[in-house]
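Before going further, learn to read the protein records used in this course. The integers have meaning only within a learned vocabulary of local backbone shapes. To see the layout at work, look at the sequence and tokens printed below.
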Amino acid sequence: MKPKILCLPGSPRADSTNMALLGRFAEATSDIASVDIYRDLGRLPIFNPDLDGPARPEIIDRLEGALHSADGLVIACPEYAHGIPGGFKNLLDWLVSGDALYDKPTILVHANGRGRGEFVRAALVEVLSAVGANLINADAMSVYLVSKGPEAVEEILCEPEIAAKVALVARQFVEKLI
């Protein structure tokens, strides 16, 4: 049975470079893993501890269910103002009181590259440590896609060296889950 991987993009943006990178990750492992990309980030309500219980929104239950059923987690998060984007931090805040991330094998990939993204990586490492995630690699892969349009992103991700790098990281992660 193929391992199940859930990819969490840190931005709900339609032309997100991180979403494009996760798409390539999914393609690179389609024969050896079942990969889902979470697409409801922009629909999550603002975290409110008063709703974290019987009044919990159904969308949060679905998120937790997806995380519980996943064997591994891939996070691709942009850096906003030297930190985690508000929407993605909100997602993580909803998960703090539960165990959906506890001991979950996790890698971080980035569409930043060239020395960018170190602040968001550090912030994610801190938050993921707080919730007990099993962070296998805080910088599994960085591809410089910042400020590139969709066509340029596609061209870069199709370059043989980049495509090989994505495939290698993706397959190595899947092997850790088997």
Helices lie at 17-28, 58-69, 86-95, 118-130, 150-158, 160-177. DSSP finds six helices and five strands in the chain.
